[in-house]
Each structure stands twice: as structure tokens, then as C-alpha cells.
Specification:
Heat Shock Protein 90; 64% helix; alpha+beta; two-stranded antiparallel ribbon; elongated; 16 helices; 437 residues; 5-stranded mixed sheet; 2 domains
């Protein structure tokens, strides 16, 4: 009977994983492979198995330090978290570390509060301490719950691995510091002002951690909005150019219709005189004078239509042989600004690449096709100048550093649970993208 009680006490000690785990799922709720309710049920079932085994090991081997078993359990939970989410390692690890960082804070506060009720720290299972820690964890996480929607935005929109790994240094440092600060004896806490100073310092550290997190969110949000604003302004410029080209074409066709009757008279006279050679030459000259390319209705989106016509005119001006087949879904969760960013980068990069090839040999093929719940985009174009590459991928041919366009397309693809691939082979550059719309 005594052993059974110890088992349940040990199981309760490991139950701190439950609120921490659920708090990890909340910012990742838009990136889960399965519904949140099913993920939580699977997580709780997994905890019953792993937690029970951990509690048995704790009791059977009379282990004094809970962390010897808790740390391996957390590693197992990380791999569970990774398996049920669609995000990469950087974002998953970032969420896991940032949430785990909170647990040592609650542990320290539990020691501070439990010092009022117990004379000395209990080695091994300490139910009084566990109850206080669980209460603190549930209370603070309930207070932080409204902030998870902002955290979810960060996870959905920030996918720069180096930034996330760099920011993870702070929670790792705080976690190590708090674990190291766990008191050996309550007697040490009660000496002089150690208790007051320790409590104030940990409160300050937690506040600092949350403030840095909020500042990181504000900086990320501001940067993303500025980037999107720049893209929107560029798109507005393209739409303005498209509108001007429409007006120019309307004016041109009006003048052409007015002048066409004179050309008909000339061609009729040459035909009556049976002057075939002069007629052919006149028709050829008249055809060459038709330099304005009529804007096309390529897709239903006005913004995308303006974008395609803008770069189509450039392709015509640069004598690039284009073969485009554009099919886009009527209803989609993909924002127009994101599609414009993807297609804009593809079109700009392809035309720039084609311009390095001798005239008469330039080609650019672009296909977008809807299959099931996925939008597939395939682009191929030839290029003449060597591409800049290193171990981290392609470098920009316009400035020093990495190609921003390729990185932007990859980031957007990951936001829509997609795949991005870019490469080159025998003078041909290709981009393959899959998005779930």
C-alpha cells in the first residue's frame, strides 16, 4: 500500500509535463498535422505510459533527484511535439525551449513558498512542493494564455532559423541559471536576506524574459509589416503601369482603327494592280508598326493580372520566348500579396536570367496547376552567366549576400504547408513550388 501511494505521488511529480506540453501546442495550433483535441488526447495517453514508467523507476530504484528521469522524458516529449507538427526543427525547438524555460522559474518559486511549510527540503518525492509548483504553473500559464495568439503569429510568420536559434540562447541561459540556483537546503534560504533577494531576482528574470519576448514580437511584426507594405507598394506601381498600358492600348487601337481605312485603300489599289510584291511589303511594314502588345486577362485576380502583364510586356521587349499556362484556384486561403510575391520573384528572376542569353535563344516556361487541394507552380528559364553559389545556397547576382527572392518564396511556401525547390542544370534554372490552398 505504501508503495502504491509513492507511485501516485511520483506520477504527480511528473505531471508538470502536462501543462507545459499543452502550452507548447497552443502557439503551434496552426501548424499541427492533426486537430488540437486529438493531439492533446494522444499526448495525455502517451504521458500515462511514460509517466507511469518514470514513476515506477523512481520508486523501485529510490531515485532522489527527479531531474534524472524528467529530462529524458522531456526529450521524448520534444520528439512527440516534432512528430505532430509541420514546422521545421528551428521553430519546433524554439517553442519547446521557450516553454521549458518557464518550468525552472515555477520550481524556484515553489521552493521559496514551500520553505514556509517545511523545515527542510525532502529528497526524492515531495508532495507539498509538487502541489505548489503545479498550482503556480497552472496560474501563470492561465494568465499567459491570451498571449499565445501573438506567439502563434510569430511561429506562423517567422521562419528564419538563425534568428530563432540566436533568440533561444536567452531561455537556455535562464533555464541553466535557475536549475543551478535550486537551493540545497531551506536553511540556506533563511540566512540573512537570501530569501528576499532570491525571490526578487527570479521575479526580475521572469519579467525580463517576458519583456524581451514581447519586444521580439513587436520587432518581428514591424519588420513583416514593413516588408509587406513594400511589396504592396511595388504591386500598386505594377497595377498603375498596367492601367497606363491599358489606356495606352485603348488610345492606340482608336488611332489604328481610324488609320486602318487608309491602309485598306492602299492594299486594295495594290491588289487591283496585281502588284503582289508591293502588297506583301506594305503588309509586312504595317505588321511591324503594330508594336503595342495587348494586355491579356490571364487570371481572375486584378493584382496578379497586372503583375503577369507587366512582366509579359518585359518579356516581349527583351525578345524572350514565353510559354505560360496559368491556372489558379477560385477560392483560396493564400493571400494575393503572397501569390504576387511568389510569382513576382519568379518572373523577375527568370527574365533577368534570360537577358544574359543571346537574343533569339531566350525562353521562359511557367505553369501553375491546381490538383486536389494543392497548387503546383513550375518555372524554367535559360541563363547565360554563371550562378553564384556556396554551401548555403544561391547568392544574389544583383547585390552582395543571399538572394532575398528565393528566401521569400521558401518562407511563404512553408507558411502554406508547402514545398519549395530551386536548382539549375545545363544552363537552365528551375523553381518548383507546392502550396496547400
Amino acid at each position: 500500500m505504501n508503495t502504491l501511494i509513492k507511485f501516485f505521488q511520483a506520477l504527480f511529480s511528473f505531471a508538470i509535463i502536462i501543462p507545459s506540453g499543452i502550452f507548447c501546442f497552443l502557439p503551434l495550433r496552426n501548424q499541427l498535422r492533426y486537430p488540437l483535441s486529438k493531439v492533446i488526447i494522444a499526448f495525455l495517453c502517451s504521458f500515462l505510459v511514460i509517466g507511469s514508467l518514470s514513476a515506477v523507476a523512481m520508486v523501485m530504484f529510490n531515485i532522489d533527484n527527479l531531474n534524472f528521469i524528467l529530462f529524458p522524458d522531456l526529450i521524448i516529449f520534444y520528439f512527440f511535439l516534432k512528430s505532430v507538427t509541420k514546422v521545421g526543427t528551428a521553430r519546433c525547438l524554439f517553442v519547446f525551449i521557450s516553454v521549458c524555460c518557464l518550468v525552472p522559474f515555477f520550481s524556484l518559486y515553489a521552493y521559496f513558498l514551500n520553505a514556509f511549510f517545511q523545515e527542510e527540503i525532502s529528497r526524492g518525492i515531495d508532495t507539498s512542493y509538487d502541489i505548489i509548483q503545479m498550482g503556480l504553473t497552472l496560474t501563470v500559464m492561465a494568465l499567459l494564455f491570451p498571449l499565445t495568439k501573438y506567439y502563434a503569429w510569430m511561429i506562423d510568420n517567422i521562419n528564419i532559423g538563425k534568428v530563432l536559434y540566436l533568440f533561444s540562447i536567452l531561455p537556455i541561459a535562464l533555464m541553466a541559471s535557475n536549475i543551478y540556483s535550486v537551493p540545497i537546503s531551506y536553511a540556506n534560504i533563511r540566512v540573512g536576506k537570501v530569501y528576499a533577494k532570491g525571490f526578487i531576482i527570479t521575479i526580475f528574470e521572469l519579467a525580463l524574459y517576458l519583456i524581451v519576448f514581447i519586444l521580439f514580437y513587436i520587432f518581428s511584426k514591424t519588420t513583416m509589416e514593413k516588408s509587406r507594405l513594400t511589396e504592396r507598394n511595388h504591386l500598386l506601381e505594377i497595377q498603375k503601369s498596367y492601367t497606363e498600358s491599358l489606356q495606352s492600348y485603348i488610345k492606340y487601337t482608336t488611332e489604328a482603327r481610324h488609320d486602318f481605312k487608309h491602309s485598306i485603300h492602299v492594299m486594295n489599289r495594290l491588289a487591283e494592280d496585281n502588284n503582289i510584291e508591293a502588297l506583301k511589303e506594305y503588309i509586312s511594314q504595317y505588321q511591324d508598326s503594330l508594336t503595342v502588345t495587348a494586355p491579356l486577362r490571364i487570371c481572375k485576380s486584378d493584382a496578379l493580372n497586372a503583375l503577369f502583364n507587366h512582366y509579359r510586356q518585359q518579356a516581349v521587349d527583351y525578345n524572350i520566348d514565353i510559354n505560360w499556362r496559368i491556372d489558379l484556384p477560385d477560392k483560396s486561403r493564400i493571400l494575393d500579396v503572397d501569390l504576387c510575391s511568389i510569382f513576382g520573384n519568379i518572373l523577375e528572376n527568370a527574365i533577368d536570367g534570360c537577358c544574359t542569353v543571346t537574343e533569339g535563344k531566350r525562353y521562359f516556361n511557367l505553369t501553375s496547376e491546381v490538383k486536389g487541394e494543392c497548387l503546383y507552380i513550375v518555372s524554367t528559364n535559360n541563363y547565360g552567366e554563371p550562378l553564384k553559389m556556396d554551401d548555403n545556397g544561391y547568392s544574389s547576382t544583383k547585390h552582395q549576400g543571399k538572394g532575398i527572392g528565393l528566401h521569400s518564396m521558401k518562407s511563404i511556401s512553408e507558411v502554406y504547408d508547402g514545398i519549395f525547390e530551386a536548382g539549375n542544370n545545363d544552363g537552365e534554372f528551375f523553381v518548383n513550388i507546392m502550396l496547400k490552398y
